[in-house]
Automatic annotation (TrEMBL):
Protein localization: Membrane
Residues passing through the membrane, by range: 243-263, 275-300
UniProt lineage: Bacteria, Pseudomonadati, Pseudomonadota, Alphaproteobacteria, Acetobacterales
Pfam families xref list: Glycos_transf_2
Keyword tags: Glycosyltransferase, Membrane, Transferase, Transmembrane, Transmembrane helix
UniProt source species: Acetobacter farinalis
Protein name: Glycosyltransferase family 2 protein
Key word Transmembrane helix present: yes
Superkingdom of this protein's organism: Bacteria
Domain (Glycosyltransferase 2-like): residue spans on this chain: 13-180
Membrane topology of the entry: Multi-pass membrane protein
Length: 330
């Protein structure tokens, strides 16, 4: 057993950024002052650092990140060759931080997540937890639609037996070994918040109130939210495929009962009126079959995409002080 508390960690804070020119300077200031005060209180090592990932932004985000890298030795900047999406950008940042830090926190650039919770995360890390989940206690600042759809999604995932931390997104601390374990999951389309619980290791939660976006607009429109939800379901469970089989079984049972009914009616000299019921059952079965094919197709599409083993991202530049500029990108 390790002796607790663990030694003061070198902390990395990884921040994926996509078109975040409106919030970047605010985010940088906040996180620099947090690192500074935590280092002064000897909660983290003085060589702790921030790692900003530019996910193919089309505004001045990268220019601002590079300026911050030149100005502050504790800032690193990673530029992806194109927009790969939040999950891939976060993985790129985590892969770049791997091996450099003892504890790695990921947080969104808009600072909707409470930065002071990072202090409690580090305390939990030093108490021996490898994974510390940031859990949103109060979501009043999210829209009604976002809250309701999130609740529906969590319930759906729970019904399908997927272990997921409720009201947790990608604000968390990982220890060096938890991160190394996470990076061994090589699937192309990773759903990180579903994979982290699979990694295991001692874990705990810190609760915080989610605030509003400091500036700019959400980079998660409905289309991206639905894609992430679909990714979450198809990458974490095959329950929908089993439900199709169960549905097929139920429909077989019903049609058997209907056959018995028709036979009994025929032998007792009654005729069964049929036109409407035939039309309705044709439509119903057509719908069920198309839906089932769609679900099966979604999984087959996933196998197809995964089988190509394409890289998750390409790095265009990696800016950091006094260090080699390569790392494992897959
Ligand atoms: N983000 C990204 N790539 C994308 C979309 C978003 O790196 O394609 C980043 C974004 O800059 C932010 C984080 O992911 O740091 C979460 O996005 P946002 O805050 O807009 O999502 P919301 O809080 O509205 O769900
Ligand atoms: Mg946000």
């Amino acid at each position: 057993m390790p002796a607790f508390p663990l030694p003061i960690p070198r902390l990395a804070i990884v921040v994926p950024c996509y078109n975040e020119e409106d919030v970047f300077s605010y985010c940088l200031r906040e996180l620099l002052s947090l690192l500074d005060s935590m280092a002064q209180e000897q909660m983290i090592r003085a060589d702790s650092f921030l790692l900003f990932v530019d996910d193919g932004s089309r505004d001045t985000t990268w220019e601002q990140i590079s300026a911050a890298c030149s100005e502050h030795a504790c800032v690193q900047g990673l530029k992806l060759s194109r927009n790969e999406g939040h999950q891939s950008a976060l993985l790129a940042g985590l892969a770049a931080a791997d091996g450099q830090a003892d504890a790695i926190v990921s947080i969104d650039a808009d600072l909707q997540d409470d930065t002071t919770a990072i202090r409690r995360m580090v305390e939990a890390y030093r108490a021996g937890y490898d994974v510390v989940y940031g859990v949103r206690e109060c979501r009043q600042t999210d829209t009604w639609f976002k809250r309701t759809s999130a609740e529906g999604f969590y319930s759906l995932m729970a019904c399908m037996g997927v272990r997921q931390v409720i009201n947790h997104a990608d604000f968390r601390l990982l220890s060096r070994r938890a991160l190394a374990a996470l990076l061994t999951y090589t699937e192309r389309n990773a759903y990180i918040r579903g994979l982290v619980p699979l990694v295991g290791f001692p874990s705990t939660e810190v609760r915080y109130a989610r605030g509003v976006r400091m500036a700019g607009e959400s980079k998660y429109p409905l289309r991206k939210m639905l894609a992430l939800a679909m990714e979450g379901i198809t990458s974490m469970t095959i329950t929908p495929l089993r439900l199709i089989a169960a549905l097929g079984l139920c429909i077989c049972g019903l049609s058997l009962a209907a056959t018995v009914y028709v036979l009994v009616m025929t032998f007792t000299g009654n005729t069964v009126e049929g036109w409407s019921s035939i039309i309705l059952s044709i439509f119903f079965m057509g719908g069920v079959q198309m839906l089932s094919l769609g679900i099966i197709g979604e999984y087959i599409g996933k196998i197809y995409l995964e089988s190509k083993k394409r890289p998750r991202f390409h790095v265009e530049s990696f800016l950091r002080h006094n260090a080699p500029s390569t790392f494992q990108t897959q």
